[in-house]
Structure prediction request, 493 residues.
Amino acid sequence: MLEDKLNFSFEHSFVDSLGSLYEKCRPESVSSPSMLFFNYQLAEELNLNPLHLNSDEGLQFFSGNKAPIGSIQISQAYAGHQFGHYNPKMGDGRAILLGEVIDANKLRRDIQLKGCGQTPFSRRGDGKSALGPVLREYLISESMHALGIPTSRSLAAVKTGENVLREDILPGGILTRVAASHIRIGTFEYASKLEDKNVIKKLADYSINRHFPETADVENPYLAFFAAVCNEQASLVAKWMSIGFVHGVMNTDNMTISGETIDYGPCAFMDIYNPSTVFSSIDANGRYAYGNQPGILTWNLTRLAEALLPLISKNKDESIKLLTEVLQLIKPVYTNYWLSIMRSKIGLSKEEQNDVELIIGFLEIMEEEKVDFTITFRLLAKSLIGDSKSIKKLFNNSRRFDGWMMTWQERLSQEGIDYEKIAFSMNKVNPIYIPRNHKVEEALKAAVSDDNIEPFTNLYSILQNPYDEVFGLESFSGPPPESDIPYRTFCGT
Ligand code: AMP
Ligand code: MG
Prediction:
């Protein structure tokens, strides 16, 4: 009876369609797992019973100790460009897909364990995850979701009860990750290099069917598919930029075809606005700095275009011409998305010619005055409803900022909407609570080193309502206390 209640009703369309793109494997068992965090809301969204899953029996699944009924466990193959260099054989070295479920919205979602031991793709790695990065991914991915950014989700975070060896000995963890799929640009790169030329076509057909069925019936479906992926990723990166998110490792294997954010490694949110912000300790040259993300978007999609070349036309020159035309659209498409969000961030709902200069001018002053990215937009809204002192103070009473405010207010008057309503709509797109690095570190330290999950739980719940200011939570909305040491993030291995 209990078994039935825990039935995920798994489907396996990837396994059924794409035989050369995975290997079957099994998670390693762990001795004394415990559930640290479980996502009730997401379980419901997935048509699963949260009460049944958050149980001793469920824990056996989420720790990899027991395969749920109907699961076919696999790791997916992919290649990728890592920091610009091609790596032909990567794949899920520490992740195992349990199966696909059809969620309450009739969408197909992958359920995957991350950190459950070696797979055929592990190379020299142990296939495990430390608990800190598991909790970090859980917190940030769910915060991204609450912010309205497409993202993989987190269903469960398990402490394995075993240690993993990194630079230090650390407690181990396993994340249950949910995603629209785990197909990456790198999956296409891998398929395109296989001897069997049919695989790339099968993968493209599968991806069209799963993610962009509307492109199946047009004249050149593969070209339309490519344009659709470009569109989704451009929209995604524009959203990242609008909230100061730095992914940190925008390698082609970390960019999904679905347009969801995936692989939360050394990502972080920028405090002080500076386009050259880099957090990752491995990104010494700043390839994936905040301000480089839109450029990298095109670079990555060019790698996807290369993989799709044989599918576009029998004539290679014609394929290159058609794909290049789409590639050239990425920048304007991205800019449109970006402009539209940035307009709403400064309270504009109409479109005027000079809006771009107004927005860029504001960003330039923000950079010059080294202000906090998130707080600035909230204070800008406040300036419309009686508190203009706070933002002036933030900008050190800069003359240039005063001038900008006058131009902005003139532009706002063309909107024909009263200031209170404008401020209200600005606060719907400008979050007040983001996962600030110092708060994330504080919560992780308590959870991992002091066995105290409370700060994590508290931060998690605050981040679930990122746009609504709550009295008494001032310490969560502000930048970190002054510090000379730049914040560094490390890969989630
Ligand atoms: P990531 O930095 O998470 O995007 O991972 C890059 C590559 O390294 C992927 O192929 C991962 O599967 C692999 N990898 C990361 N951590 C481990 C690990 N602990 N054991 C084995 N493979 C890993
Ligand atoms: Mg990855």
Remarks:
- Residues 253-254, 263 surround magnesium ion (ligand 2) (CB under 6 Å).
- Residues 2-182 form one domain.
